[in-house]
């Protein structure tokens, strides 16, 4: 499957959705799953994040190489999120977003796929399933002329078995879909238990282009992830992803030490000017350094680098593959023996991962002992990850919203260049002559000394 996707993914838009049933609990599983298929999806939709609207640690759940948008409940459960590949520009569409807690929860963006075209992308979660009220709320999205003109991709958990055509609400939903030229891309079960198989998680689109939909058998939660790769070409922002490294082996270090020790530094000592002597020394030193430690393209595809899970070892990665095989075996043949084998291995692996994470972070903070700066740097790297510069797209000034980047820059410049004068004007001292200020301060000082004098 990986080979098929990787051949078709180049310059194509692709989407992935999964119901995580708590992103906090299953974020590691999501990262491992995405890392195992090596597909840079254009957008990843997540339902049932179980985040609260007042959570402040969203950055703990950022995916490497993606920007994140969340829409969360005030209370427990529910919630949706979108991870958007950093290679694409986008903006949030609050006019299309519907968030009625516990009833219909969604998040929409407009994804820029080329210089003149864009696609509407939405993630939807229906906690109560599909009913007439939900259909009424979704109708404007399906019937939107903008969705028809630009193209639209919807993904989510609709909490209704779309393989069953007995319910009247399901038939109403299918009529809404088909009457607006949308197509449901997945027709096989996405949630399988010991005694049921239902289609709850789907993708829908009105893009009239060939695509490759699929379902991934994975145990991130009790819902299978779904994906779709479109044949539609897109214009991605070019990024230089080539990195270089030097190999500091014992042999190379020993060779470098020999060259430095045996070098005739007479040409440095003969220089009369310090700057010229240093230039010659540095030139000789760097020449030996480059010879002993040449730059080479970094071809390391270690899972730690690609997934951001720095505690991940090769053994744990292999165990994750074994667990995945046991789970697929259980899904194909749902016997009690297969389930027990999968569950036992899964529980052991979960314990190993917890120990590996604990040991890694213990060692990290042991190395920071007695160094408060390094300690806080480690804490910030865990909580906030790598710093991300987010450009200011708009600013409100004197009741007016400004979107011109040049005008925004001038507003900030005017504010900071005048801040000293404004602070000074807040004090009465600024209205008095300097000699009066000095005399007043002297009087206040004398009064203070007199009051504090002990006879």
Structural class: alpha+beta
Q: Can you count the beta strands?
A: 19
Helix content: 40-55%
**Contiguous helical run count:** 15
Beta-strand fraction estimate: 15-25%
Average pLDDT, all residues = 83
**Overall geometry:** globular
The main β sheet shows up as: 7 strands, mixed
Question: Mind telling me the C-alpha Rg?
Answer: 30 Å
- List low-confidence stretches: 301-306
Distance between the termini: 93 Å
Domain Endonuclease/exonuclease/phosphatase: 44-223
Transmembrane segments: 426-451
Keywords: Membrane, Transmembrane, Transmembrane helix
GO molecular function, one term: catalytic activity
Walk me through the structure.
The protein has 455 residues and is of the alpha+beta class. It contains 15 helices and 19 strands. The strands form five sheets. Strands 5, 6, 7, 8, 9, 10 and 13 form a seven-stranded mixed β-sheet that branches. It has a six-stranded mixed β-sheet with strand order 3-4-2-1-15-14, with helices on one face. Helix 6 (250-262) packs antiparallel against helix 8 and helix 10 (314-332) runs antiparallel to helix 11 (336-366). The longest helix has 31 residues, at 336-366. The termini are far apart. This is Endonuclease/exonuclease/phosphatase domain-containing protein. It comes from Holothuria leucospilota. Residues 44-223 form the Endonuclease/exonuclease/phosphatase domain.
């Amino acid at each position: 499957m990986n080979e098929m996707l990787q051949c078709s993914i180049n310059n194509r838009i692709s989407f992935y959705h999964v119901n995580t049933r708590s992103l906090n609990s299953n974020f590691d599983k999501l990262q491992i799953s995405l890392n195992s298929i090596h597909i840079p999806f254009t957008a990843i939709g997540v339902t049932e994040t179980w985040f609260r609207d007042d959570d402040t640690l969203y950055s703990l759940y950022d995916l490497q190489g993606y920007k994140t948008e969340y829409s969360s409940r005030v209370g427990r459960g529910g919630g949706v999120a979108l991870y958007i590949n950093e290679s694409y520009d986008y903006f949030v569409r609050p006019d299309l977003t519907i968030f009625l807690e516990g009833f219909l929860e969604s998040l929409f963006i407009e994804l820029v796929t080329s210089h003149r075209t864009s696609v509407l992308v939405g993630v939807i979660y229906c906690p109560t399933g599909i009913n007439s009220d939900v259909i009424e709320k979704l109708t404007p999205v399906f019937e939107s002329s903008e969705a028809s003109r630009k193209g639209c991709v919807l993904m989510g958990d609709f909490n209704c078995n779309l393989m069953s055509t007995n319910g009247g609400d399901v038939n109403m939903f299918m009529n809404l879909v088909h009457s607006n030229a949308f197509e449901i891309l997945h027709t096989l079960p996405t949630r399988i238990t010991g005694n049921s198989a239902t289609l709850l998680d789907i993708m829908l689109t009105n893009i009239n282009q060939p695509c490759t939909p699929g379902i991934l058998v994975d145990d991130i939660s009790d819902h299978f992830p779904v994906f779709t790769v479109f044949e539609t070409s897109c214009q991605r922002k070019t990024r230089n992803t080539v990195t270089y490294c030097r190999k500091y082996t014992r042999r190379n270090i020993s060779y470098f030490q020999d060259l430095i020790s045996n070098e005739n530094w007479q040409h440095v000592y003969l220089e009369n000017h310090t700057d010229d002597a240093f230039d010659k020394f540095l030139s000789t030193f760097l020449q030996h350094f480059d010879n002993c430690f040449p730059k080479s393209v970094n071809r390391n595809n270690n899972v730690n680098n690609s997934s951001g899970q720095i505690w991940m070892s090769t053994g744990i990665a292999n165990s994750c593959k074994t667990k995945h095989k046991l789970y697929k075996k259980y899904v194909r043949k749902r016997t009690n023996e297969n389930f027990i084998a999968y569950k036992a291995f899964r529980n052991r692996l979960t314990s190993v991962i917890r120990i590996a994470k604990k040991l890694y972070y213990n060692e990290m903070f042991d190395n920071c002992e007695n160094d408060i700066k390094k300690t806080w740097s480690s804490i910030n790297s865990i909580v906030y990850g790598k710093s991300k510069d987010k450009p200011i797209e708009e600013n409100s000034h004197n009741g007016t919203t400004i979107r011109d980047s040049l005008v925004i820059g001038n507003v900030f410049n005017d504010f900071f260049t005048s801040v000293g004068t404004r602070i000074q004007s807040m004090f009465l001292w600024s209205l008095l002559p300097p000699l009066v200020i000095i005399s007043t301060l002297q009087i206040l000082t004398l009064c203070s000394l007199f009051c504090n004098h002990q006879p």
